[in-house]
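A common beginner's mistake is to predict each chain separately and then try to dock the pieces by hand. The better habit, illustrated here, is to supply every component at once so that their relative placement is modeled jointly.
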Amino acid sequence: GQNIDQPTEMTATEGAIVQINCTYQTSGFNGLFWYQQHAGEAPTFLSYNVLDGLEEKGRFSSFLSRSKGYSYLLLKELQMKDSASYLCAVRVGVSGGYNKLIFGAGTRLAVHP
Amino acid sequence: DSGVTQTPKHLITATGQRVTLRCSPRSGDLSVYWYQQSLDQGLQFLIQYYNGEERAKGNILERFSAQQFPDLHSELNLSSLELGDSALYFCASSVGMDRHNEQFFGPGTRLTVL
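With all components supplied together, the output reads:
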């Protein structure tokens, strides 16, 4: 089966650093994505990892360990506008050489002043 | 603005009815994906089309069907609607099928079944 786990909710303070974890157990792995989604809006792409290690992109960084089935998203210098849901998604292969994304349920982050 | 458009933005209908949701991908994108997002279930992959052909299927009910037309726009048809079909339906598009192809999501269609 396919299983992606993330904490349901997190809170943090403006200006601080927060780490959102994601663990996965999937049949096949072709990369891991992080998306940000504000309530009622479309998900927007944040980061992509396919090899082990850290990818840094401004205030956001994402880490992947394929052997542990583990990723995290690190948000630095938190701003109020970072209050949103953060979705971890794993790309797995399907028949015919194609891929599909499996999303976790998302982590709702609330940033407080 | 991702460049992906979806219509309508909101749809309210009754149980047993049939509706059609429409999606236009970003210019140049050949792949279209449909997702359902319910309050209690997160984002669920339904189906993918690439250049007019179905390529991957997720947890799509038999009452639902989709197609991608020669101009690459796609439609998702939902029939015999039930209360539980109330959800946000997102369409996403990407350039191709493999490698680092991030998906760009449209604004969604909010379906309410009464």
